[in-house]
């Protein structure tokens, strides 16, 4: 039995968020039509000012407009609109090879996982942009330190999902940080995933990257902070509490030494500041412990919702 025959009976959807990809989108759509003949291909046009929508429709894709600017808004809309057994998500810039899609879909079925991530070989070249390469490497290291060792390429836009993953994923992000949110969602709920190394190509001539190294790097870092607060409140607020406590303690050392020598506390402003810092540290620690209990309850509810969506049939 061929790999494509294994997919028979499954409703496949290829979802492609797009913004100004006129130069490459037709080839991407045609590639996925050849790689996954039974799949429906959706192109979500995110306010393109060129002929992206027209070329996608001409290549046979179902084109949907999403007016809210940002990849996260597009992904949220796609996941809400489309009902399928398996979803393949890719970018419209031609950097991902549609011929690799059957490998991702096959991994969902054979490995019994809910997300297959196509990790990008050669991504550190990133079309020659050193800032992107450095940021990609740094954020991946930071992710593994903060959220676990589940993923080595959290920014890959080439992924396959089961219905169970898609319909349990809240998709709160608005921009390119959406892949980070997907990864944290999987890590937090212990969702089974697999990574598959795939070739990563360069953009076609006339296609420009929508990433902005500094702007999007700051947005992704802000998402890291937000997700850390939401998923690991003890660590987040505990770290802040430790910082306040250390500063308060350092300020109190000369005061304590003076008091032991003379029995006096001559610098009342410093004493008040030190006391305030220590009280703030205690409050932050208490907030972290309370929110940790709430987070555990939220994870339990999200896990129940995830389990309430039927998984793939056993082959």
From TrEMBL:
Keyword flag Transmembrane helix: yes
Pfam families named in the record: Glycos_transf_2
Keyword field contains Transferase: yes
Alphabetized UniProt keyword annotations: Glycosyltransferase, Membrane, Transferase, Transmembrane, Transmembrane helix
InterPro entries named in the record: Glyco_trans_2-like, Glycosyltransferase_2, Nucleotide-diphossugar_trans
Domain Glycosyltransferase 2-like: 14-166
PANTHER family reported in the protein's UniProt record: RFBJ PROTEIN, UNDECAPRENYL-PHOSPHATE 4-DEOXY-4-FORMAMIDO-L-ARABINOSE TRANSFERASE-RELATED
This protein's name: Undecaprenyl-phosphate 4-deoxy-4-formamido-L-arabinose transferase
Gene: arnC_1
């Amino acid at each position: 039995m061929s790999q494509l025959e294994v997919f028979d009976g499954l409703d496949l959807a290829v979802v492609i968020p797009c913004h100004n990809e006129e130069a490459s989108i037709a080839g991407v759509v045609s590639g996925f039509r050849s790689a996954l003949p039974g799949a429906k291909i959706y192109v979500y046009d995110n306010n393109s000012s060129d002929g992206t929508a027209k070329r996608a429709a001409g290549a046979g894709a179902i084109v949907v407009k999403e007016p809210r600017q940002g990849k996260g808004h597009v992904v949220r809309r796609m996941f809400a609109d489309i009902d399928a057994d398996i979803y393949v998500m890719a970018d419209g810039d031609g950097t991902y090879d549609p011929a690799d899609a059957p490998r991702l879909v096959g991994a969902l079925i054979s490995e019994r996982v809910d997300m297959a991530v196509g990790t990008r070989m050669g991504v550190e070249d990133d079309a020659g942009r050193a800032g992107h390469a450095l940021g990609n490497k740094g954020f991946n290291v930071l992710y593994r330190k903060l959220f676990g060792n589940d993923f080595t390429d959290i920014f890959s836009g080439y992924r396959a999902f089961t219905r169970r993953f898609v319909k349990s994923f809240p998709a709160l992000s608005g921009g390119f940080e959406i892949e980070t949110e997907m990864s944290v969602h999987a890590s937090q709920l212990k969702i089974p995933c697999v990574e598959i190394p795939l070739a990563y190509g360069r953009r076609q001539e006339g296609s420009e990257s929508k990433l902005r190294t500094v702007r999007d790097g700051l947005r992704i870092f802000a998402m890291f902070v937000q997700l850390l607060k939401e998923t690991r409140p003890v660590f987040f607020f505990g770290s802040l509490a430790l910082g306040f406590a250390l500063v308060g303690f350092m300020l109190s050392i000369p005061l304590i030494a003076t008091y032991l020598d003379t029995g006096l506390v001559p610098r009342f402003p410093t004493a008040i500041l030190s006391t305030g810092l220590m009280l703030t540290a205690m409050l932050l620690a208490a907030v972290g412990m309370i929110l940790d209990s709430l987070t555990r309850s939220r994870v339990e509810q999200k896990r129940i919702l995830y389990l309430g969506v039927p998984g793939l049939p056993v082959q």
